[in-house]
Amino acid sequence: MFTGLVESVGTVDAIESLGDSVRLTIADPVVTSDATHGASISVNGCCLTAVGLAPGRFSADVMAESLNRTSLGALEVGSPVNLERAMTAGGRLGGHMVQGHVDGTGRLIDRTPSEPGPDPRWDVLRFSLPDDIARYLVEKGSITVQGVSLTVIEVVDSDPDVGSFFSVSLIPTTLADTTLGTLTPGDAVNLEVDVLAKYVERLLDHRKGATHE
Fold first, then answer.
1. Contact at 8 Å (CB) between 124 and 112?
2. Which of 85, 117, 142 is the last residue of a domain?
3. Which of 1-5, 115-119, 120-124, 180-184 bottoms out in mean pLDDT, i.e. has the lowest?
4. What is the distance between the alpha carbons of residues 25 and 54, in angstroms, rounded to a whole number?
5. Would the pLDDT of 127 be above 80?
6. DSSP 87
7. Is 180 helix (H, G, I), strand (E, B) or coil?
8. Alpha helix segments (H runs only) across 158-194
9. Can you give the residue range of the structural domain that contains 24?
């Protein structure tokens, strides 16, 4: 379980092909400072297991399913990645409950910077959204983008030009301390919706079924 608060931006150090999977080696001194074999680490929002450790580096195997369903397959040596260690019991939940199980991918449609001023303030980013997970988003609700816990400010279903999309407003700290600050239109991102919404839908479906029996 994660919070969606990125601890560090690491760098892909190596990519080893294993046939239908790959082994990623990621360099970062923060998340490796207390990592152990088998530790869970979120990489761009995907929960991966550390299978190898070296000073300032960890390796993780990524199966074909993950490569096909997330943006990890597009990583290259040198790519920056958002990293977060699994939360500890008793720790502060500063973001929201994040499993590291990617529900789908979207793409950055556009970004609108704040009005010019003496200091940078915020950017509004619009992302495309797969139709099958759009129903889980609500205004002021939570979503994880590339492992970053964000608050949704707008949700639009089936826009005639771009399809379903959502918008988020990012403060300077988020722009500077995660990879979201360097995204350009067309870039793919991993999306994880709020797991509570999926549980509620499941419970309501069962309730409807029981009512009709």
1. yes
2. 85
3. 115-119
4. 10
5. yes
6. P
7. helix
8. 172-177
9. 8-85
